[in-house]
Amino acid sequence: MNYVKLFFRNKKSAIGVIIFLFFVVLAIFAPWIAPYSPNSMAFTPLQGPSWKHWLGTTAVGQDILSQVIWGTRLSLIVGLITGGIATVVSVIIGLSSGYLGGLTDDILMTITNIFLVIPGLPLIIIISAFIVVKGIWTIIFVISLTGWAWGARTLRSQVLTLKNRDYVKASVVTGESSAHVIFSDIFPNMLSLVVANFFGAAVYAVLSEAGLEFLGLGDSSAISWGTILYWAQNNQALLFGLWEWAAVPGLLIALLGMSFALMNFAVDELTNPRLRKR
Amino acid sequence: MKYILKRIVFFLITLWAAVTINFILPRMMPGNPAEVMIAKFQGRLNPQAISALEIAFGINTHESMLAQYWDYLGRMVTGNFGISVSFYPTTVAQVLAQAVPWTLGLAGISTVIAFILGTLLGIRVSWKRNSISSSFAVPIAFFLNSMPYFWFALIVEYVFAFVFGWFPLGGAYSSSSGLSGLALVWSVLYHAILPAATIIITAMGGWMLTMRNNMISVLSDDYITFAFAQGLPEREIEMNYAARNAILPSFTGFAMAIGFVISGVLLTEIVFSYPGVGYLLYQAVLNIDYPLMQAIFLFITIAVLVANFIADIVYVFLDPRARSGGE
């Protein structure tokens, strides 16, 4: 694939991939990289940064650096899994809506537009407020539920243009089944859009997760960047002058979001020759 | 006209969907969570209030689901959202009415400023695509756009309100009594600067990137080349030829973007303890005040729908194709 090569030569995607890989390494090797156990409460609470604790300690005496390193796991997992689920849903809805047309299209697109226009975060907040069982899967479920609509709409319009190409028409005339036409003829030609969508959904997931946990609607005993921010805010870290406690996890969320956004943009740039640098 | 009619129908369907979500959510969850809430407030509410809550959330009722739903729709249409359990005995509508003006002011003004600034920047950046400032603007916009709003708000609050002490730490106006007239207006503006700046800076990046991409697509069109060949002034090509067409997708993308902005406003309000709808939602969540939460959700949905509706109308003026009812 020529595109894969181009993807790595593009400056935006290269930076995106490097940041992303950095986090993957951090997540996988967290037990070896982190200086202490993230749950250990053996240290003096509310300390500023020192050689022993680069980012200081929490109100119950946990090492913040270790928490931040371990937190990479959850944030990364939620981003990737939620991005994946949202993408699958938008592919299914976008493809069937665009290909089948007619009443199916009308109904699916109305549902999509409703989900698109109902503001995501408030919806996520009230759903999670009603769900009594808090945990990572609740978060993934709720964010996926609200994060697929944009993808479904862009994929549908792509299907509409592909549907009328000669090679697809030829395939239909030769009597191929709908499933074959959709998955073998149309789908491969919109893969780049699907990939771009995945990155877009992942950004949305990472930011929504952080927002949800910051509000205390996540599992506050789990260790993720969002919950670190939640505890920092609840213990008024900034007013104690412990700004690293809040600054670093937020910065990492922004970097992870940015790496997904850069890869998304790069795919866009590669497949749309007009956006490429002349 | 047909276009507007279509938008109105969509408006109503979405509103209905939001109301229905509110109706279904508590009834769908295992062990109706509203029951827990009522149990928690048992001693503090009078029996009448409790039975009203039970009706609203479908507890201890012999009515069929359909009858309950019909009643529910009726209450929504008449604007009866019930009592807020955390601000008992105030009604939800009254609590909400106090918060709404703050959010409308903050969100409305900063969204418009962010849209205008971001779009203008996007035009500039695409026009001078290979200049140094452009190559800096794009990565910065990426970063701003990927930041968690509330985190940026925290940092802004820390630096400008706590460390430098230039602005108040939170709230919407000075609590010292006796403020009136110009002094009050000034106090309100002074308190709004930091939250508004947070929203504008974070939202601007997205608009800039969208506009930049639209512009770049438009700039390679033949009619732009032709305009250059005609020797038209650059300024006119940039604004009247390129930007006028490039802005259209920004308006259609408004639907999704406004949702993001609203989410950002909610979180920003929470950080700055700004007494708007977002801060109220936060308090409702902390106190498990379901009636209040549902009313806020409904209100935000309506606000977004109205904003979208306005964007749709503006779109009709900008795009002659929408006016003629074609594509």
Explained architecture:
The complex is a heterodimer of chains A (278) and B (327). Chain A is mostly helical and 278 residues long. Chain A contains 13 helices and no strands. Chain A has one domain: MetI-like (MetI-like fold). The model of chain A has no long low-confidence stretch (mean pLDDT 84). The two termini of chain B are 14 Å apart. Chain B has a domain of 194 residues: MetI-like fold, CATH 1.10.3720.10. With 327 residues, chain B is mainly alpha-helical. At the A-B interface, helix 5, helix 6, helix 11 and helix 13 of A face helix 1, helix 6, helix 7, helix 8 and helix 11 of B.
Produce a short descriptive summary:
The complex is a heterodimer of chains A (278) and B (327). With 278 residues, chain A is mostly helical. Chain A contains 13 helices and no strands.
Helix/strand layout:
The complex is a heterodimer of chains A (278) and B (327).
Chain A: H1 2-9, H2 11-28, H3 30-33, H4 64-100, H5 102-117, H6 120-130, H7 136-147, H8 149-163, H9 166-173, H10 178-186, H11 191-214, H12 225-234, H13 243-271
Chain B: H1 2-28, H2 33-40, H3 47-57, H4 65-77, H5 92-127, H6 132-146, H7 149-163, H8 181-219, H9 222-229, H10 234-252, H11 254-271, H12 277-286, H13 290-318, H14 320-323
Helix pairs in contact in B: 1-13, 5-8, 5-11, 5-13, 6-8, 7-8, 7-11, 8-10, 8-11, 9-10, 10-13, 11-12, 11-13, 12-13
